[in-house]
UniProtKB/TrEMBL annotation:
InterPro entries for the chain: DNA_bd_Ku70/Ku80, Ku70, Ku70_bridge/pillars_dom_sf, KU70_core_dom, Ku_C, Ku_N, SAP_dom, SAP_dom_sf
Residue segments, region Disordered: 504-529
GO biological processes: DNA recombination; double-strand break repair via nonhomologous end joining; telomere maintenance
PROSITE patterns: SAP (PS50800)
GO cellular component terms attached to this protein's record: Ku70:Ku80 complex
Name recorded for this polypeptide: SPOC like C-terminal domain
Positions of the SAP domain: 585-619
Location(s), subcellular: Nucleus
Record-annotated membrane-spanning stretches: none
Length: 628
């Protein structure tokens, strides 16, 4: 089990304070290269041979580059492409000879690499990943000039020193022979010949992949956080935290000035409600209400109240894996990976711990605080071993961090609705099995399905930006493949007929459903009539109760308002209680539940399900409501 980033740093540079910060707020001495979210700086270097463009000249004639090398033309600066540039790129092939032309002699490759290096030197190495895509049909450049060949090899080594990633795209040679990577590029690019085959050297597939990647929005994989993992009091290792899934969303629209089309900046000002004057941060305070008294607190006090402990992960112990239930995972899980860059030996510890937990079928229980001021949580670490699928896609080794609920998070519904057990015939089960088997999805993978709403949005956005007449059609992959249903109509019809037979053999269990289908309108009228009758009966009861209350009020004028209000409220509370006991939660409204809880002096905050649980708990406890 191998882990990447096997780099160590001295203990002098690693201190407690720096290691426990988060989201890039680490000291520069302990920041690993992959922790900072970098942008790609990609240069496309194209060798314009005559047979590629089907011309009779060689390389570019013009020389437009900062170093004034002949035969090298910089079409665009290294920057985010504009909509105008994207439209112009499509026309370059047709206008190449008129706009750039071809040179009479071969352009030295070392000058091309030198020009690329000069472009990268103007960028910050900590913010960008430098990459070069080299398209060429020459597998042995400068084979007849050893001096130029040595200079080219030297320039490639300098690229390696600058951490520039160069990717080779072999093009079709003029003599229709295969591109031989062993002649030159094997040494300068440090390519393992054992991994080279015809599929790897297939440039057409790689170019199609580039075209797809250029039109696809990619998200940089980076660590979400870095913390220390404590094992005991003094032992600790460093870990990275990654997010498994992140919902792709449409970009937020930015507001522009209507006349100048410049972006607007939104500012927020706090105004005094009495004088209307602008208030600054030092003039604004906060308070907590305690016993009808306003206790003033400042920002430092609030931060101290929120902080439970420093951000870290501490091992509590181990439990059997079957103790972790599916319903325990009540929020998004994370992936934990060792970080040898900060503490050497973290990978070795992780590898040993994963193997032993898998052998003993156990999980680790940890106390987890992701960052300063976060709520402390109990979590389970599920071990994951390294594996590869048939497409050589790696499942990395590490731990899946599963959030465990507190006792306060678990819901306890006292009233359980009994479920009727419905017997199903063996014939219906057999037909259902046949239907499921014939319509089984083969090679199903969620990574092959794109969000059609996002695709449609970006398709229209692209058409608007590039001034295209019509947006590109969107292929909705979430539509059923009806061609797979062809030839299976008999099985579907068989299942439908068998289901009808099952319903006819058990009419008593399905009377309600049949009545809904045949006499839907009639049933609605009957229900409305029953509701009117019940409403009239309820009104009669209330009027009778009110009359009795009025008669009683005439005997005691000093307590008229109290008797009337209590009697009416008691009637309404009893009705709500009957609906709760009968399980008719649909008819219950939030205001009715709040009235019931308020009548018995209970808390009325929360959602509808919280109010129902609170009322059920109160009724189940059997408290004496008359004394409340």
């Amino acid at each position: 089990m191998d882990f990447d980033d096997n780099v160590s740093i001295s203990d002098e540079n690693l201190n407690e304070g720096n290691a426990q910060n988060f989201f890039g707020q680490l000291d520069q001495d302990v920041v690993s290269p992959d922790y900072v979210q970098k942008m790609d700086a990609v240069l496309f270097v194209i060798d314009c041979k005559k047979h590629i463009f089907q011309k009779h000249e060689n390389n570019e004639k013009n020389a437009e580059n900062p170093l004034k090398f002949e035969g090298i033309n910089k079409v665009y600066n290294l920057d985010n492409p504009t909509a105008k540039q994207i439209r112009e790129v499509v026309e370059i092939e047709n206008q190449f000879n008129e706009k750039y032309g071809f040179a009479d002699k071969e352009t030295p490759l070392n000058e091309v690499i030198w020009t690329c290096s000069s472009e990268f030197k103007n960028l910050d190495k900590l913010k960008y990943d430098f990459r070069i895509f080299l398209f060429t049909s020459d597998d042995n450049p400068h084979s007849d000039n050893q001096q130029l060949r040595d200079q080219t090899i030297h320039q490639f080594k300098q690229l390696n020193d600058l951490d520039v990633d160069l990717e080779l795209f072999p093009l079709e040679k003029e003599t229709n022979t295969k591109f031989d990577i062993r002649k030159f590029y094997q040494d300068v690019l440090q390519i393992n010949l054992d991994e080279i085959n015809d599929a790897v050297m297939d440039t057409s597939e790689k170019i199609m992949e580039i075209q797809k990647r250029l039109r696809q929005r990619e998200f940089k994989k980076r660590a979400l956080n870095k913390i220390l993992f404590y094992i005991g009091e003094n032992q600790k290792i460093a870990v990275k935290i990654y997010c498994h899934l992140n919902k792709a969303k449409k970009p937020t629209a930015k507001k522009l000035h209507k006349e100048s089309n410049k972006p607007l900046k939104k500012t927020v000002k706090q105004l005094c409600s009495e004088t209307g004057q602008t208030l600054y941060d030092e003039q604004i305070g906060s308070y907590y209400e305690v016993g009808k008294e306003k206790v003033l607190v400042n920002k430092e006090d609030i931060q101290t109240l929120k902080q439970f402990d420093t951000s870290s992960m501490k091992l509590m112990g181990f439990k059997s894996r079957n103790k972790i239930k599916l319903y325990h995972n009540y929020r998004t899980s994370y992936f934990i990976y060792p970080d040898d860059y900060r503490i050497k030996g973290s990978s070795s510890f992780f590898s040993s711990l994963i193997n032993q937990l898998i052998i003993k079928d156990k999980v680790a229980i940890v106390r987890f605080i992701p960052r300063q001021g976060s709520q402390v949580r109990f979590c389970a670490l599920l071990p994951q071993q390294e594996s590869y699928d048939e497409n050589r896609f790696q499942q990395p080794p590490g731990f899946n961090l599963i959030y465990l609920p507190y006792a306060d998070d678990l819901r306890s519904l006292k009233k359980k609705v009994p479920q009727k057990h419905i017997e199903t015939s063996k014939d219906l089960i057999d037909v259902a099995k046949l239907l499921v088997t014939t319509l089984n999805l083969k090679e199903f993978d969620t990574r092959n399905f794109e969000d059609p709403s996002l695709q449609k949005f970006f398709s229209h956005l692209q058409a608007h930006a590039l001034e295209e007449e019509l947006p590109e059609p969107v292929n909705d992959l979430l539509e059923p493949k009806y061609q797979d249903f062809e030839g299976r109509e008999e099985i579907i019809e068989m299942f439908n007929n068998q289901l009808k037979i099952e319903l006819n053999e058990n009419p008593s269990e399905n009377d309600t459903g049949l009545k809904k289908q045949t006499n839907k309108g009639k049933k609605v009228k009957q229900e409305q009539g029953m509701q009117i009758i019940k409403k009239e009966e309820k009104d009669q009861k209330i009027n009778l109760k009110v009359n009795k209350s009025k008669q009683k009020m005439s005997d005691d004028d000093n307590d008229i308002s109290q008797i009337t209000e209590n009697e009416l409220n008691q009637i309404k509370a009893n009705e709500v209680e009957q609906n709760i006991i009968s399980g008719d939660f649909v008819r219950l409204k939030v205001k009715d539940l709040q009235f019931f809880l308020q009548f018995y002096k209970l808390k009325t905050e929360g959602k509808k399900e919280d109010l129902i649980n609170r009322a059920l708990q109160f009724i189940a406890d059997g408290k004496n409501k008359n004394d409340i």
